[in-house]
Each structure stands twice: as structure tokens, then as C-alpha cells.
Amino acid sequence: MSRILRASIDRAALRANLAAVRAAAPGCKVMAVVKANAYGHGLVATATTLAGADAFAVARIEEGVLLREAGINLPVVLLEGVFNGAQLAEAAHRDFELVVHDSSQLALLEGWGRGRRFTLWVKVDTGMNRLGFRPEEFPRAFERLCALPVPPREIRLLTHLARADERDCEMTSAQVARLRAILDQLGPHPAFAGPGGRPVVSIGNSAGLLGWPQARGDWVRPGLALYGVSPFPGQVGTDLGLSAAMTLESSVIAVRRVPRGETVGYGGTWRAERDAAIAIVAAGYGDGVPRHLASGAPVLFAAGTGALAGRVSMDMIAVDVTGLSGVRVGDRATLWGRGLPVERIADHAGTIPYELICGVSQRVPLELR
Ligand SMILES: *Cc1c(COP(=O)(O)O)cnc(C)c1O
Q1: For 98-124, what is each residue's pLDDT tens digit?
Q2: Which fold has domain 246-368?
Q3: Is 325 buried (19+), middle (13-18) or exposed (0-12) by CB count in 10 A?
Q4: Which residue from 87, 136, 161, 298 has the highest number of Cβ atoms inside 10 Å of its Cβ?
Q5: Ligand 1 atom closest to Cα of 165?
Q6: What is the pTM of this model?
């Protein structure tokens, strides 16, 4: 069966992006973030391709279980930790590493009286105000961790940056300084395994590791960069030496003439200012093409670049290909990816590239290359 619509996943690009991350963060370990179905790229296939990472990170325990069931034995970090006793037992059984960001999770661990020792990543909230212990709460949380009935295998620290994608924003340095202040106050502890008896720390996501050398820590946690996408507004992956791993492509299923003055699509929001050639492409919001994509957004054909004409439908879009010679039924159309950066499409949809790649829907087959 030859597919009309597909997300083609370039495994060589994934591997090259991992190498680029390693080159950008020399000496750091890499926790490859594969949450949300590896940002839409396919969880298991992506993790298998990125087997050269030092660990994987997921948001939900179910994602970690899928990795283990696929035979993946690298460390797996649960970025939100666990939320009940059953999940804690599952995490022990699967040998997951846990983020601990809330006192309810300390209480769960205090009730864990037997069995496996966990590697725990204590999350410090240095300003994001989402998850983690505030600096003033940290000492008490740390005391409780040190008194756990089953001592942790290792205690590590992590924090998350709120504005690392803004290259000249003071907040990143302030967040790093808050973490450093905590580290400076911590004496050596047998649960720490970093050099000099200090804890191993993780700070930078993609933007942190690429834009802020001082904000890397011992472990970096890239997601977006591994998929070849730029976290920085105004730049695309190739500007940063990355290659797009996902190309969303479909086919032209009809080409029609629209006389000057007539409109195209629901709501009649696009009007032909001259006799127009319109290509109908089989991809819509049911596939993850955002309905907020604005008329004029580029769509790439072998014959050149067309412009979205009117509203995105559930299964189709209309593209103005007037002046492009020879766009025919059956021609390939690229929605984003190779040759058409998803960052540009995100700009036309008023969103960020993360949302587009994560939002490719289940009915779109992933094809590994
Ligand atoms: C998702 C996530 C990351 C990865 O972020 P990118 O911007 O995709 O690199 C890193 N750390 C945490 C805690 C996350 O939730």
C-alpha cells in the first residue's frame, strides 16, 4: 500500500542531532527526552535509534513501561515522578529513576519500607514556578530524603529553565545562580556521587544547552534539538547544525481552476484575486495540521512553493499553486520537514514547533527511513 499521507522519520538525522548535542555540551551526559511519543516521532523507534544516549526521560510512567517492554535497558527518568503507591511499585519493578518535586512524593517514599533503592532527582524550583521545591523548602525536603527508610541509591539535583530560549534574558543566569547557592550550602553526603562528594546536577534543556554554556550541569536534557528543531525564535534547526527528523508529507488529490472573485473552503475566507489554480492536498486538522494555520502559509511541491488558501479542513487543505507549472494529482506535498522548516509553519500558525510535531495524530503512519 503506497501511502498518501505519512510522517517520514529520518533516523540518520536523529543520530546526527544526538552527535550535535554531544558536541555542543562536551563532557555532559545526555538524557534524551522522548516524552509525548518522542515529540510525535514514535517512542520506541526513536529510543532505539538514540540508543547512544546515556538515559531516556519521559513524563508519564506508561511511556517508561513501553520502553522497557521494547527491551530498552538504558536508565529511564520519570520527569514528573510517581503519584501513588502502585506507580512507585511499578517504578521499582522497572528500575526507573524518579524526579521528586513535591512533598506528597516524599510521603510516598517514606512509606516505601522495603525493596529497591531508587536514584532520585530532586527538583529545585529556581523560578519556573511549576514543579519543584523552592530554595527555602529544599533543606527540609533534603532532610526527609536522607531519612528515608530505604536509602536512595543516589540523590541528584535538577532544575528547569523558564526562558532559556531568549538569548539575552537575565532570568537564566538568575536561575543558575539560585541552584549554585543551594549546591554551595550542601556538604558532602554519601548519597551524592559527583566529584568532590557533591551531587550530580542537570539543568539545560535544548535551549539551555545550546544557548547557555553555564546552564548545562552534568546532565543535559534535550528534547526538541534531538528532533532537529530550533528552540530559538527566528532560527531554524539547520542554523544550529541540526537536521529535521520529521517530514510530514502528503499528496495532491485534486487540482482545480477557481475563477477570479470566487472563494475557497469553509467560511469563504480566501478569495481568488485572479483566476487561480488550487491544489487540494490530503492533510488536515484530523492529521495534526493546525486549523489556525493562516492563509499564505507555505506548502512545498516539487514544482515550487504554494500558499495555503483558506481554512484547514479535517482531512484536506487547499493550496494556491497559480503560476507553479505542472502541479498534478499524485504529486507529493510537504507540510513541514525537509526543505520546509516546521519552525516557519509554527510562525504561520501562531504556535511553537513543539506543538506541531507532538500533534501529528494517530492516523498518520510513521515511516522510518
Ligand atoms: C520536556 C522537558 C525537557 C526537554 O525540553 P526541550 O525544550 O524539548 O529540550 C527537559 N526537561 C524537562 C523537565 C522537560 O519537561
Answers
A1: 999 999 999 999 999 888 999 999 999
A2: Lyase, Ornithine Decarboxylase; Chain A, domain 1 (2.40.37)
A3: exposed
A4: 161
A5: 7
A6: 0.97
